What we know:
This protein has helices spanning 20-34, 43-50, 70-83, 137-144, 163-168, 176-179, 214-218, 252-262, 276-286, 311-320, 333-344, 346-353, 368-379, 408-421, 446-459, 474-478; strands at residues 39-40, 63-65, 87-90, 109-112, 128-132, 149-150, 186-192, 198-201, 227-234, 236-237, 241-249, 268-275, 298-306, 326-330, 357-362, 384-390, 395-401. The chain is an alpha+beta fold. The longest helix has 15 residues, at 20-34.
Amino acid sequence: MSEPQSPPPLDPEMFDPVEPADRDRLARHLAAVVGDAHVLTDPALRASYETDFTGRHTGRSRLVVRPADTAQVARTLRLCRDAGAPIVPQGGNTGLVGGGVPTGAGTEVVLSLRRLNALGPVDADARRVTVGAGAALAELQRHVRPHGWDFGVDLASRDSATLGGMIATNAGGERVVRHGTTRANVAGIEAVLVDGSVLDRLAGLPKDNTGYDLTGLLVGSEGTLAVITRARLRLVPELPERVTALLALDSLAAAVGVLTALRRLESLELAEFFTADGLALVLKHARLPGPFRTAYPAYLLVECAARHDPAEELAVLLEEAAEVRDVAVGRQASDRRRLAAYRERHTESVNAEGIPLKLDVTVPLADLPRFVADLPGLLAGRARPYVFGHLAEGNVHVNLLDVAPDDEEPVTEAVLRRVAEAGGSISAEHGIGRAKSRYLHLTRSATDIAVMRSVKAAFDPDRLLNPHALLPLPWEEAGR
Ligand code: 2HG
Ligand code: ZN
């Protein structure tokens, strides 16, 4: 095996430098398909597509193209493939692992799906709705809720996160405890392959045993296999009666204990944890009043939803839970939103302190309190940690501030190795993107990765679709 090398800024073998004449030719051809206004070559216009929400993952694209429909996406892909131009598909640009932004090479075309935002009629008979990849989650919620239906996945970034991006990353979010991840809520997909052909699995029949599940394969494929253009989504009944409670606890172990009891409630829809440090940061940056008179080491935000008011069953259960030190309850929508804000505003509050190193991981639930307690030792003063997340799935969002550039890799490796040793996953819900591809081997076996490589080669033999995301690059493998 060759000696470990440090990653070069761009892979010289993969991409030829782009001659200005070629750059112009591709832009001109694309403009003929999508219109001049939707091919962005000016650096100022491209900028917001080239940096992620945290500012950590940033790059430079060859151009940004914004097709309006599936046919335009198909023609765009064909033109890019003929020009040998790598493509980075992008939705609402709310990803946190650099999977939707270009590298620094200036060779990639950012393919924004945001204009594919049509929402089809709510099909109550089938409990389905067909949506464009570029529709934002909040737009879908506003579309289906008046009809008495809801989408089973919800996220703090609902106003910007697009459904195509959520599908491409198999987003999880806050309601997985009840409805599963995005994968469980997608019935069918339409996607464009790198050669411009359209893969139509949109029917999403409830029963259809005709071979490989191509829809399931594309969910979570992070734009590396095809470009998702439309999806047929499952709907769940919109439940009118809701109660939210913020529980104050002495420890995360106590939070796990209370969750075990809460899981007996069919109405349980949300179980989110955070700690005293994170709450202090939220109070500071979001300028919110504290939820309790004193601070507690750990907090659990729970929500129950049902046809009939679930407040009583939640209250009975909480009265029996000796671990609960204090409770704040919200029944009205405004009170429930106020309580949820203590958890949902963590991301922006961490961002307000600096550019975080984000490690979204799963650890087996029983190990979660010990994992969090071990973090300071693992970090050895190299970072200021904030942890919060989705307790029921053991999903911890490890947010690290003040990490020196030289410490980023050793710190990431130390945390992810600890996760792997615990039998967890190095990505719970944000995906692998560019940030974690070199660590994929920690929780996926060599056989897994070989199969994934074969799948990638079958869909995208020239490695043009999101080439820096998900699968480790050759130099990353050589460096192990
Ligand atoms: C959340 O659960 C998101 O709020 C973002 O997944 C997590 O900011 C993060 O690390
Ligand atoms: Zn999350």
